[in-house]
Amino acid sequence: MAGGDELKLLGSWLSPFATRVKLALTLKGLSYENLEEDLSNKSELLLSSNPVHKKVPVLIHNGASVCESIIILQYIDEAFADIGPSLVPPDPHQCAAARFWAAYIDDKLVIPWVRSFRGKTEEEKSEWMEQTFIAVETLEGALRESSKGKGFFGGDNVGLVDVVLGSLLTWVHATEVMSGTKMFDPAKTPLLAAWMQRFDELDGAKAVMSDVNRMVEFKTRQVQAISVAAASQRQ
GST N-terminal domain: from which residue to which, for each copy (predicted)? Predict the structure, then answer.
């Protein structure tokens, strides 16, 4: 680590939020120690490093902890401004726009998408999924505007929004395998579909993204366990 800095990441292979930190560190060329957390039995280090939310990811830099994935990404970019490519553009307006869309992804895409899986009725699940696709269509427009006809939200290079959205792609692929649902449908959102293929081929993405088959196997077992538990309660 340049300058003697020590970086540790408390995360989980299941967490796309931990994945986005891995992506940022890898793209910046920073070495770090990855500490895999058992989320059903959280370590004392995690609980003491993130006493408020008690969740991953947490980046520990020379003993000081930084929490919340998007905040961590911005911290990495500022703390290591002289190492590797920047995740945010130098122009203040473009930087503000990138931060806006990063927050939009978590608020308007991730939240309804997660709720679409947890809905108690098919109608409720469908309503949340409809909101998810509305967010996807909005992001198609954001990509068109931000990329200026180039490959990524950051233009020629991967930026903050690319990392935030790219961290979800293992879940996007797993969802397609499990349900046939295309989050980024080439017929409806061609720019995002092409962007996804481009992002998947990045060396940095290949190095840190979780295996899709492993994710499908985990989610299949989880769904089966929930079904068994629900059936036993009805007996």
Answer: 5-84
